[in-house]
Amino acid sequence: MSSSETIASADNDRTLLSVLSMSVFFVGASEFMLSAMLNPLSVAFGTDSVSISWLISSYAFAYAIAAPLLGYLSDRINRSRLLLIALLSFAIDGVGIAFSPTLEIAIGLRIFGGLASAVIIPTAFALISEVIPRARHASAMGAVMLGMTFGIALGPALAGLLTNWVGWRAPFLLTSTGCIVAFLIGTVTMPKRHTTIATRKTHGFRWLRNPNVTRPLLAKGLWNGTGVSAFLLSGEVLHQRYQFDVAQVGMSVTAFGIGLGIGNLSAGKLRRLTGSEERSLIVVTSLLIASVAAFNLLPLPVFGALACLAAWGAALGAGAPSATTVLAERSSHDKGMVLATAETLNNVVILSVVPLASMTLVNGTTATATAIFSLGLGTGAALTLYDALVATDRAP
């Protein structure tokens, strides 16, 4: 390849990563922005916040249930086209909700949006594994995940500001506009990229019998899902220990978001330092267990608690791209379905751990909640260590 072709290829890679990062940014923002809009939405639809919460639950439920099936589909048709269709669908969904006449119609549209997002996220990472050079997989996935991190972190704030300044429809219209922009850029960029259509090479559900896939899949679901669950309940710990109010809790957990972004950006460097994604995941899970345990069990000053939150976020931010790289590489032609199943498993763990741990935190028993977290994190870390040992034995 000539130097001009190399430069053109690198430019195409950067453009593709920008489109994918933009896509997952608006998906992440759309998923979390409703936390700042429950009251305005209640007024707009003439109901209470309990009914409005169905806009959140319906989206999450549709995503979790449909992700493996849509991942199966993505392994059998052109991923670029499927992603573009999903982006356009997500944009239409946002406009539809903004002008929905009833809550029931809005909930139905959120289900449709959940289906679209179940395509966008795993397909984006499957595309990276197919068109980006292998040595750059972890760093590329980290860069795209950084887009989702920003969406999750900034989504509620942007939604709150836009709702106050313009009205409750503005956040939905913003996410729709963003997806349309990503769609338009993608129509120029993505068709030029080679993507696999592996209809005859995919194996359906046969990958479930492959321990080299199911082992890291289960490990990631356990440590990542439990780590996110512990973070979702960290505000209650801050409130009980330091008597923080809502505003103080909100400001404090930004330390986690900062750490998450740092972790996303450092995934590639950690991989190079350790020599493989499998080894880097041992470092990540060890840091995750240490930071969660210290935050919940030690009598730390506020600064110490914030440091633990930042380390906790960095571990999850660096671990997710590396684990996704491992799954994408080992699942070969079934990567769309495997990556989508990983998203579902992560949500299942969160839905299981959060209620159990929250019941103990309400009673002020942080140690019991930590034991629940330790079970999930420890099992995930043990599977990660075993997988790294197997990978080392399997390497030539």
Total number of strands: 0
Rg, Cα atoms, Å: 21 Å
The CATH topology of the largest domain? Growth Hormone, Chain: A
**Unreliable stretches, pLDDT < 50, 5 or more residues?**
1-8, 193-200
Average pLDDT figure: 84
Molecular shape: globular
* Strand coverage percent: under 5%
Task: Report the helical percentage.
Answer: over 70%
Task: Domain count, please report it.
Answer: 2
Taken in chain order, the helices and strands follow as HHHHHHHHHHHHHHHH
What structural class do helix, strand and pairing data support? mainly alpha
CATH architecture of the largest domain: Up-down Bundle
Can you describe this structure?
It is a multi-pass membrane protein. GO terms for molecular function: transmembrane transporter activity. There is one protein chain. The chain has helices at residues 3-32, 38-45, 49-52, 54-74, 79-98, 103-131, 137-165, 169-189, 211-232, 234-242, 246-252, 254-274, 277-297, 302-331, 335-362, 366-394. The longest helix has 30 residues, at 3-32. 83% of the residues lie in helices and 0% in strands. Helix 4 packs parallel to helix 6. The chain contains 16 helices and no strands. With 396 residues, the chain is mostly helical. It has 2 domains: 14-192, Up-down Bundle (Growth Hormone, Chain: A), CATH 1.20.1250; 206-394, Up-down Bundle (Growth Hormone, Chain: A).
How would you describe this structure in keywords?
0% strand, mainly alpha, 396 residues, Growth Hormone, Chain: A, 16 helices
Condensed summary:
Helices cover 83% and strands 0% of the residues.
